[in-house]
Amino acid sequence: MKNTTNTPESALVLFSGGQDSTTCLAWALARYAHVETIGFDYGQRHAIELAVRPTVLQKMRALKPEWNERLGDDHMIDLSLIAKISDTALTQDVEIAMQENGLPNTFVPGRNLLFMTVAATVAYRRGLTVLVGGMCETDFSGYPDCRDDTMKALQVTLNLGMATRLKVETPLMWIDKAQTWTLAENLGGRPFIDLIRQETHTCYLGERGALHDWGYGCGTCPACALRARGYGNFVTGKSA
After folding, report:
1. Which of 12, 135, 136, 147 has the most CB atoms around its CB within 10 Å?
2. The whole model's pTM is what?
């Protein structure tokens, strides 16, 4: 059924269950009266992120009454075709490495482009007017579909193609991982930091054995390295 909250204050957050998208969800909940979430099963190697999503959402509801009031439906979309047409370290059991084109083989061509297109379609049906994603080009793995120019071009294309006025928001675009931790603390305090550490998942290899000070993960993949360095800088900056 189409949501009747068809106002500028309604958002759809691309929510994977990782640190960045969880922070973006809190950011949206602080700004919009009605927020829904969307996740994608694309045959990812780190499918554990799909398993943690319901717990993260449940605990976010419990963290703040206003978050519980504003948080609406969650939508899970099957995009397994991505794994069938791509050959990357995120969809195949291969070693993470750099490619000849200068991009890591964790880059899944077309992934964010497809994510945003599907999210826009769901937003159209639900009457939601803002798309929120955790893309960032300040402290990232170099993916071209995470860049600001890509997101701006997508906003124009989606609105032209659907005759809408959707707005694409990327609150992490120009901040590094330490600043992302700081943003999370500003949004939800230490309880939200602990929720991110203990419940979210960002590791590319899907490892969830040891809990590090920055969260779960293998500790060596690019995603873990960025997260760990950012947390270290966050803690150091607070104590400086």
Report:
1. 12
2. 0.87
Q: How far is CA 199 from the centre of its chain?
A: 14
Asked whether residue 22 is marked as a ligand-binding residue, the answer is: yes
**Is 218 labeled as ligand-binding?**
yes
Known binder of ligand: residue 15? Answer: yes
Q: What is the C-alpha to C-alpha distance for residues 166 and 73, in angstroms, rounded to an integer?
A: 19
User: CA-CA distance, 114 to 98, in Å (whole number)?
Assistant: 23
Tokens of 47: 């499918």
Q: Residue 136, annotated ligand binder?
A: no
Question: Hey, what are 149's tokens?
Answer: 């120019």
Looking up tokens 């607070």, which residue turns up? 238
Domains, the chain, ranges and CATH? Answer: 10-176 (3.40.50.620)
For residue 111, give the H/E element and its range: helix 111-126
17 is in an annotated binding site: yes
Is 40 annotated in a binding site? The answer is no
pLDDT tens, residue by residue, 141-198: 567 888 999 999 999 999 999 999 999 999 999 999 999 999 999 999 999 999 999 9
Instruction: Say which residues have a Cβ less than 8 Å from residue 122's Cβ, sequence separation at least 6.
Output: 12, 38, 75, 77, 128
Cβ-Cβ contacts under 8 Å for 238 (sequence gap 6 or more): none
Quote the CA–CA distance of 103 and 35 in Å, as a whole number.
34
Determine if residue 179 is labeled as part of a ligand binding site: no
Q: Annotation-wise, does 50 bind a ligand?
A: no
- Bridge partners (DSSP) of residue 212 are 215
